[in-house]
Specification:
- The chain is built from 13 helices and 15 strands.
- It is of the alpha/beta class.
- The strands form 3 sheets. It has a 7-stranded parallel sheet, with helices on both faces.
- Helix 1 packs across helix 13, helix 3 runs parallel beside helix 4 and helix 7 packs across helix 11.
Length: 371
């Protein structure tokens, strides 16, 4: 049984799940993607795969984008017209116009269609919600990252049997890492962390609410004078953050650029009191929890990424959205909390759903049921 999977880019953080799909014993997956990047997301080098795996990879697509959104994928329609595969997986993004056309072709050819994506968030305006609902009704099954979206779609009249939550995963949540995630051996002279350090990891953009974090930090310095923020990542908002920081003469904020060395990231997470993301948080929260580090973010799920549903009163500190005083208090609570005894349970909980092995199992089961 063959299935073609069309994605936009070959994201570095998806290496474990791509490898598992390619080596699936139950379904013969072919993965089609573009070698170009979007928003400077790091792509996987094919050298990471063996000879057999490379034969299942097809870097033949070309993404045409507008405002960093893919709106046409050259090469998809040709493949859909000629492929003998039983099913096709597309990204569940309605902005990709070529996907709408490809799905119609699949329907005519009586091929099964699957969308892999976010579904709906619950904060869409009427027009956007109309088109998203229309788009999400096209496939035979929607493969979603979280239960929040599934529940919203069911309320909109979607058949629950045509929705499969597959969660998400990153390299640090691969099952082989579970027993070693809290064991760290220092190998390099890295940035030296201190007792009251908090961390942000991700794209430095406006929607992450990083200006709120800096303001909350300035207020907290009056109470915790050694509180430091370490930013890891790049993005369009970085220059403004640095400028704001310089104007405040704040020496307790550090920018470490993007880091892809997992051992380095492990060191950063395990030596931080909290991961703080005031705007929204996605896979970064799973990354943090996989090393037992709690997360501080806002508690309004309709303005969050799907992975935020992994957060609870045990592993996180949730504040009132856009409220600096609430953010300040929850950071303070996180700093003062005794986290060492919590780390093992935090790690165990996130490994229940957010592993590439669990993703593979859920995807395979649903595809085998439908195909």
């Amino acid at each position: 049984m063959k299935v073609d999977f069309f994605t936009n880019i070959f994201s570095h953080y998806r290496l474990p799940i791509w490898r598992l799909l390619i080596n699936s014993k139950n379904i013969d997956f072919n993965i089609f993607y573009s070698q170009t990047t979007i928003e400077k997301i790091k792509s996987i080098d094919e050298s990471a795969f063996n000879n057999y795996e490379v034969k299942k990879l097809f870097p033949v697509l070309k993404n045409y984008t507008f405002l960093n959104k893919v709106f046409w994928q050259k090469g998809v329609i040709r493949r859909v017209l000629t492929s003998k595969s039983s099913g096709f997986i597309f990204l569940g993004e309605m902005t990709i116009i070529s996907t709408w056309i490809s799905v119609i072709i699949c329907k005519i050819r009586k091929k099964k269609v699957f969308f892999w994506g976010h579904g709906i968030y619950g904060n869409e305006n009427i027009l956007k919600l109309f088109f998203r609902i229309l788009f999400l009704k096209l496939p035979d099954v929607n493969l979603l990252y979280g239960n929040w979206s599934k529940n919203l779609l069911v309320k909109k009249g979607f058949d629950e049997n045509k929705i499969q939550v597959i969660y998400n995963s990153i390299p640090s949540t691969s099952s082989k890492n579970k027993k070693t995630n809290l064991i760290y051996k220092k190998k390099h002279d890295w940035f030296q962390f201190q007792n009251n350090d908090i961390l942000f990891v991700g794209r430095l953009n406006k929607k992450k609410g990083l200006d709120l974090l800096i303001e909350a930090h300035l207020r907290l310095l009056k109470e915790i004078n050694d509180l430091r923020i370490i930013f890891i990542g790049e993005g369009p908002f970085k220059k403004e953050l640095i400028k704001t920081n310089l104007s405040n003469l704040n020496k307790n904020i550090f920018f470490l650029d993007s880091i892809y060395d997992e051992e380095y990231l492990k060191y950063c997470f395990m030596n931080s009191k909290l991961l703080v993301s005031p705007g929204n948080v996605g896979l970064a929260c799973i990354h943090s929890l996989s090393y037992g580090t709690p997360v501080c973010t806002h508690g309004e799920m309709k303005f969050q990424m799907p992975e935020a549903e992994a957060l609870n009163s045990y592993n996180s500190f949730l504040f009132k959205r856009n409220d600096i005083e609430s953010l300040k208090q929850n950071i303070k609570n996180g700093i003062n909390a005794k986290n060492n005894q919590k780390r093992i349970k935090i790690v165990e909980d996130v490994f229940k759903n957010y592993t590439p092995e669990n993703q593979l199992r859920l995807i395979e089961n649903k595809l085998l049921e439908i195909l």
